[in-house]
Amino acid sequence: MCRKFITSKENQELLTKISNHNLKELPEIVAINKQAYAIVLEDKKLKIKKLNFGYTNLDKIIYNARSETVLTKSLFKDDFLQRKAIFICNGYFEYNRLKEEEYFTSNSYFFLTGFYNQNNEFVLLTKKGDYLPREPLSITKKDAVNYLNNKLDLNKIEHPLITKANDISLF
């Protein structure tokens, strides 16, 4: 279950180009209860929206939703169908079976998939993991707009090549 991910100044520069105005710099590590810039589709245009990580209107914070069951959960269904979001990142942290935090990265940026509610709070989609029991549902640039347009079959996504990083000091 993804609790935090890493973005970079270069990624924020890309978001600034999409938004056509300067964005306030946010921390590079996005964790639960922190803000992140999301790419969303509104009025058939890509826009940048600042969202808070985690649904907080419950007894506990919910920060992930299973892609396999998202349409069967009343808490998620309408948000997933109406307010999809993608988050540009360079990597994410996950806990392994021994409850040790590990960092997963790619040689290029990629997108984490999610959606948000009317309170501008977001959750990330997860899938059965390749390395771990669950991991974020990540997509390449090629699939990003199709995901936002509801034209992407979640079972047929071309996932970016993500590997466990041995040294995160580069970030």
Please describe what this structure looks like:
- This protein is mainly beta and 171 residues long.
- 15% of the residues lie in helices and 40% in strands.
- It has 3 helices and 11 strands; from the N terminus they run E-H-E-E-E-E-H-E-E-E-E-E-H-E.
- Strands 1, 2, 3, 4, 5, 6, 7, 8, 9, 10 and 11 form an 11-stranded mixed beta sheet that branches.
- A hairpin with a 4-residue loop joins strand 7 and strand 8.
- The chain is globular.
- It starts with a strand and ends in a 7-residue tail after the last strand.
- The relative contact order is 0.20.
- Mean pLDDT is 85; it is low at 167-171.
State mean pLDDT (0 to 100 scale): 85
Give the overall shape.
globular
- The end-to-end span amounts to 21 Å
Uncertain segments are 167-171
Most strands sheet: 11 strands, mixed
Q: Number of helical segments? A: 3
> What is the SS-derived class?
mainly beta
Radius of gyration: 15 Å
Helix content: 10-25%
The percent range for strand residues is 35-45%
Order of helices and strands: EHEEEEHEEEEEHE
What's the total count of β strands? 11
Defining traits:
3 helices; disordered C terminus; mainly beta; eleven-stranded mixed β-sheet; 171 residues
Layout of helices and strands, plus pairs?
Layout: E1 4-6, H1 9-19, E2 29-31, E3 35-42, E4 45-53, E5 64-66, H2 77-82, E6 84-95, E7 101-116, E8 121-128, E9 134-136, E10 138-139, H3 141-148, E11 163-164
